[in-house]
Amino acid sequence: MKNVCLFVIMMLTLVTYSQEKVIDSIKKKENKISIYYGGNISFNDNLNLNKKLRNSNLPEFNTAIPDFVFGLNYFGKDYSGDLELGFMYSKSDKGNYESKLSGYNTRLRVHYNLVNHKKFAFTSGLTLAYVGTEYDIFTKNNTIDLDNLQTDNSGHVNFTNGMLYFGPSTSFYFFRTSDWNVRLNLGYEFALTRGRYNSEFGAILNNIEESGNNRFVIGMVFN
Q: For the chain, which terminus, N or C, has the lower number of CB atoms within 10 Å?
């Protein structure tokens, strides 16, 4: 009788352990965490700073800004999301002047999985993003004399600002069973903060802000 009880206990332990392994395996398949990289393009046609540049006959900043991104993506059974960091750069010129834009994006997406198939998925939800940007305007033929470092006529103007965005977004997952998973992201982000300009080189007169200048964002990343 004692041996029978030991056998039953051993069998129950083995079955319980096997079930736990199966459950863990299912959870691992349902909850996938991966690292991704790719690129975004953000579109903002109503930059108030460009109006000032236009009035001064200076090169305007591009309204379609590309950035390289990488991040961490989570995909569960019902919910998905990602945390993203991006770096952007763009420049334009007009006559003897050139303008340069550089900065970073941080973005958090939280989505509900509307379609979750083995090879394809469609998710939708909300995005929160913060953008820090530096703007430089300078003359192309400006020279620097190391024996006469006078800064009164540097031919260089510098601005910085930060913006917080919030809005709806969607993601399309393709080729989920392959080694190169592709995700297409679409979003419309509302500008929540004023985005007034600052400069490390002096006070800004007649300052302006970028509140209300929303943007459309499209991107493609690879897991």
A: N
Q: Are residues 88 and 187 in the same domain?
A: yes
For the chain, the domain total comes to: 2
- Which of 34, 115, 128 is CA-nearest to residue 74? 34
Segment 132-160, tens digit of pLDDT? 999 999 888 777 778 776 655 567 889 99
Q: Which residue bears the tokens 């469609």?
A: 122
Q: Same domain for 58 and 131? A: yes
Tell me: the pLDDT tens digits for 36-95? 999 999 999 888 999 999 998 999 999 999 999 999 999 999 999 999 999 999 999 888
CA distance 150 to 146: 9
